[in-house]
Amino acid sequence: MENEKRAFEQELQNARNEAKRIEQRINELKNSKAKQEEIKEQLEKQIENTRQQISICTNRIISIQNSIDALQSDIEAKNKEFDHIKELFKKRLRCMYMSGANGQLLILLGADDFADYLARTELTRCVAEYDNALLLKITKIVESINQTKSEVEKQKQEQVNLKKTLEQKQNQLNSQVSEVNQIIRNINSQTSELNAKKQEYENAIRQVEKKIEEVLQQITALKFNGTVGFLWPVPGYYIITSPFGMRVHPITGTYRMHNGIDISGSGILGKPILAAEDGQVVIASYNAGGYGNYVMINHGKDDSSNTYATLYGHMTKYIVSVGQTVKKGDVIGYVGSTGASTGPHLHFEIRVNGTPQNPMNYFNKVK
Ligand SMILES: [Zn+2]
After folding, report:
1. Fold of 219-361
2. Ligand 1 center from residue 16 Cα (angstroms)
3. How far is the CA of 128 from the centre of ligand 1 (A)?
4. What separation in angstroms does the CA of 134 have from each of 81, 86, 142, 244?
5. What is the pLDDT of residues 275-306, one digit of tens each?
6. pLDDT tens-place string over residues 75-101
């Protein structure tokens, strides 16, 4: 029976430690998921921003291309004009000079006299000069358009390069988002694994608690001497820093049942803890994840076959041993802060038929 009980205690302690560790890990994962989601949000903002820039860039390229096309048509028109004028010029030259059989300047034949000849040659010269000037002018215009066009093409190239850079950035951001999504998926699957594990441990704790109560009931051979009610376990200290019932655990931060009351007060550290009723010590042990040094006393069965037990946690040390019989008011240990505790106090439980009850209902009078 003793070995069995010790094994249960060990099991309970391990399960509690593990449950606490898992909960911490789950909280860590929750935090890192929140961080990753923040990163993702930032990346998505950047992607949207880049997408807008790309769109602006694309519109610019289209608009610049339209300018280039317009300039190109201008150039083509001017080139046509140039060719046309050149053609007319050639024709005129042919008319003026090439009408003779021997390649002579037969233009003279139509002249009535020398003055007329001079006038004709002067005219020829003028026509040539005029056409030349016109061709030169067109050439200059084409040159100027070409220059504008190459400037605009340079602008277009700049935009094309910018667009390429933006698209690369976009791709990079997209792959970053995929990475973050992968991380979030990993976190999610780790979290659900841990939640399943946590559930297992919580079930284990419940089972062990149940087993302890079974052991308590099996070893009950005492007659409950509960006619006058329980004795307050730390005389002179009546401050309840945490009552019985659901609460946020001061260390794990989770919302859980508080199975007892926490009795505290200035100077309580090291004060004697008294057995609340006659009984037999069934547990005197250390539990790192919870009760620290703690003692459980079995007080036996009453006439209606209800079993009573009290539990005293976080002791500096206990001075009783398992199997020892104690009298109401005997010192069993001293107030401390061992186990899951944030300061010196006595965690005190009353269990009736294995179920923790509000101890405040079991004292006759509390001064
Ligand atoms: Zn407590």
Report:
1. Glucose Permease (Domain IIA) (2.70.70)
2. 15
3. 116
4. 10, 10, 12, 108
5. 999 999 988 888 765 788 999 999 888 888 88
6. 888 888 888 877 877 777 666 554 444
